[in-house]
Write a structure and sequence with these properties.
With 244 residues, the chain is of the alpha+beta class. It has six helices and four strands.
């Protein structure tokens, strides 16, 4: 058996040429494509990490801001309550002093006239004290007081029976929110909180009634939720007359 060295040599040359062509034409472009894709993947991963970091920072800031708003709102409610209590104490003290002066004057009259005069003077003192209280409370009306009344209204709605809330939320005629002054830019906030408390999207109309002095009242064709200083003064008048 003879070996064809020329044939083996040519085959070896052919193999070398084939290997060179594959490395030149196939492996280098494939390797370059793989490297390019790896680079793109790293860039995408880096961008995603940067976006996640920004999102985490924004979430932390939003959480901190929300906590600050809640604390500020609680402080506003406490301040409004303290102002109202102080004004009420001052008004009642002034009314008591005036009533005592009127009663002292009435003691000098005859027995029959004294009873009638006392009742008349009591009524006069009561009305005078209520007028003074109304004027003092009117001076306190402002954003802080309005925010406190909104919180009271939302709480009163939450305390209503579920059937009553459902009836208000589904009333086709909607409801009215009455305030002593224009609510202006606060209307959106008021509307959102009341609709949330009712659990519906009932139509809400805003009107003003200066006689409220300050407050927010909910009214519908068949229901009124009193929430104002005028309503509080009416309750004071009734309580005093019932106790007389």
């Amino acid at each position: 058996m003879t070996i064809d060295f020329w044939g083996l040599g040519l085959q070896a040359v052919n193999v070398l040429i084939l290997v060179w062509l594959l490395s030149r034409v196939f492996w280098r472009p494939v390797a370059a494509a793989i490297a390019k894709r790896q680079k793109s993947a790293q860039e995408v991963i880096g961008a995603a990490k940067a976006t996640q970091a920004k999102a985490d920072t924004a979430l932390a800031e939003a959480t901190k801001a929300r906590a600050g708003i809640a604390e500020e709102r609680a402080a506003m409610r406490d301040a409004a309550r303290a102002e109202a209590e102080s004004a009420a104490k001052s008004t009642l003290a002034e009314a008591r002093t005036q009533a005592e002066a009127i009663l002292a004057t009435a003691k000098d009259t005859k027995s029959h006239d004294r009873v009638a005069a006392a009742k008349a003077n009591d009524a006069q003192a009561l009305e005078l004290s209520l007028k003074i209280a109304a004027r003092l409370l009117e001076r306190l009306n402002g954003p802080t007081v309005q925010s406190a009344f909104l919180s009271q209204l939302v709480n009163a709605i939450a305390d209503m029976p579920a059937a009553d809330r459902k009836a208000l939320a589904s009333d086709p005629k909607g409801i009215e929110i009455v305030s002593a002054t224009e609510t202006g830019a606060e209307q959106g906030k008021i509307k959102k909180e009341i609709q949330t408390a009712l659990g519906g999207t009932t139509e809400i109309r805003f009107t003003t009634d200066p006689n409220l002095i300050a407050g927010l009242e909910l009214r519908s064709p068949h229901f009124t939720l009193h929430n104002s200083w005028a309503a509080d003064l009416i309750q004071v008048r009734k309580a005093v007359k019932d106790a007389a």
